């Protein structure tokens, strides 16, 4: 499973989800779908914008979690 670390990056930068939505022109609903893993794809445009405004690299933004470790995170 790929985890998108937007929430962690926002905390690190001291920014809000509302702020990020305004910067990259995305709805809060779509941002929340990305954060919660409820989307099947993310365009490179958004990955680039997330990295630009969250001052991070794609490697920091995305992480891979093995299936066996998912229950540790969700519980």
Beta fraction of the residues? 5-15%
Helicity, as a percent range: 55-70%
Give the helix tally.
6
Distance, first to last CA = 16 Å
What is the structural class?
A: mainly alpha
- Rg calc: 12 Å
CATH homologous superfamily title: lambda repressor-like DNA-binding domains
The average pLDDT is 91
Q: Flag low-confidence runs.
A: none
CATH fold type: 434 Repressor (Amino-terminal Domain)
Q: What characteristic shape results from the CA principal axes?
A: globular
Succession of helices and strands? EHHHHHEH
Please tell me about this protein's structure:
Helices cover 63% and strands 8% of the residues. It contains six helices and two strands; from the N terminus they run βαααααβα. It has helices spanning 6-13, 17-24, 28-35, 44-54, 58-61, 67-74, and strands at residues 2-4, 62-64. The protein has a two-stranded antiparallel sheet. The chain is globular, with a radius of gyration of 12 Å. The two termini are 16 Å apart. The mean pLDDT is 91.
Features:
75 residues; 2 strands; 434 Repressor (Amino-terminal Domain); globular
Which secondary structure elements does this structure contain, and how are they paired or packed?
Elements: E1 2-4, H1 6-13, H2 17-24, H3 28-35, H4 44-54, H5 58-61, E2 62-64, H6 67-74
Could you give a quick summary of the protein structure above?
The chain is 63% helix and 8% strand. It has helices at 6-13, 17-24, 28-35, 44-54, 58-61, 67-74; strands spanning 2-4, 62-64.
């Amino acid at each position: 499973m790929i985890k998108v670390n937007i929430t962690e990056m926002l905390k690190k930068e001291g920014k809000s989800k509302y702020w990020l939505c305004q910067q990259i022109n995305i709805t809060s609903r779509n941002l929340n779908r990305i954060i919660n893993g409820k989307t099947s794809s993310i365009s490179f445009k958004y990955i680039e914008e997330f990295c630009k405004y969250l001052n991070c690299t794609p490697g920091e933004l995305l992480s891979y979690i093995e299936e066996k470790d998912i229950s540790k995170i969700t519980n």
